[in-house]
Amino acid sequence: MSGALGIIAGGGELPRAIAASARSTGRAVFVLALAGMTDDWVRDYPHETVALGELGRAMKAFRAHDCRDVTLAGKVQRPKFSEIKLDAKAVFAAPRVIAAALRGDDALLRSVVDMFEREGMRVVGAAEAAPDLIARAGIFGRVQPNAENNSDIALAFKVARAMGEFDVGQAAIVCANLTLAVEAAEGTDAMIARVVNLPEHLRGTKGKLRGVLVKAPKPIQDGKTDLPVIGVHTVRNAHAAALAGIAVEAGGALIVDRDAVVSEADRLGMFLIGVPR
Known about the structure:
CATH class of the largest domain: Alpha Beta
CATH topology of the largest domain: Cytidine Deaminase, domain 2
CATH superfamily of the largest domain: LpxI C-terminal catalytic domain
Radius of gyration: 19 Å
C-alpha cells in the first residue's frame, strides 16, 4: 500500500483510533484536523489544521504529504453555510455541496467523497483504513444476553434499520419489546440520556438491568464515510440508563479501544455482542 493515509479528523476518539491502527502497521499518517473539533491527540502526528471551507488548502496539504488514500472520521457538526468562509476551490464546489446537504446527511457525505475523488484521491472507509476496529460476530466478554435481551435485540435492529432508510440515525433502544428511543440529529449519547428520564417501569434499574442499545449502519449509507461507533463512554452511558447490554452489526460497526470496552462491559455486568446482518 503506497503513500500516506490522510485522515480528515472531526471530534471524538475514532480518528485517533484509526491513526493509531494505521501507524501500527507501519503506514505513514497525515491528519487534517478540523478547527475547533479535533482533540489534542493530533500533536502526535504530522498534521495541519484547516477551517471548514478551506477545500483548496486541504487538497494542497494532502498532496504535499503524498496522501493517496483519504478517510473521513469523527464527529462534525452540521455547519451554517452562511457563516463559512470559502476559498476559491470551495466556492466552485459549494453549489453541489449545499444541494446535497438539503437531501440529508448521507447525500452530503457522498458529495464530500466525490470532491476528493475528483482530485484523484481514493476515499476509503474505516473498515479498510483500520480493519482491526471492525466488530466481529459473537459475544464479547463474559456476560451473555438472556431470552428477553435477544428479543429486544431483534426488534431494535429492525427499528434502527427502518429509521436508517430515511437517513434518520443509526441506533435504537428497546426494552421488553417496547421501543424507548431512536437516534436522530442529537447523536447516540443524547439519545441514551433521554432514556434515563423515563419512568422506571418502562426501563431497567440499577438493581435490574434491562433493555438494549443497538447500533447499525443505515441501509442507504456509504461505508466510506460514517459507520456507527461505540467506545468506553458508550458502555458507561448505557449503564447509566440501566441497559443490560449493547449489540452492534458485525462487520458494520466500529469498536474503539476494544479491550477497554470489553473490560468495562464486564465490570458493569453488561453484555456486548456483534450480530451478523
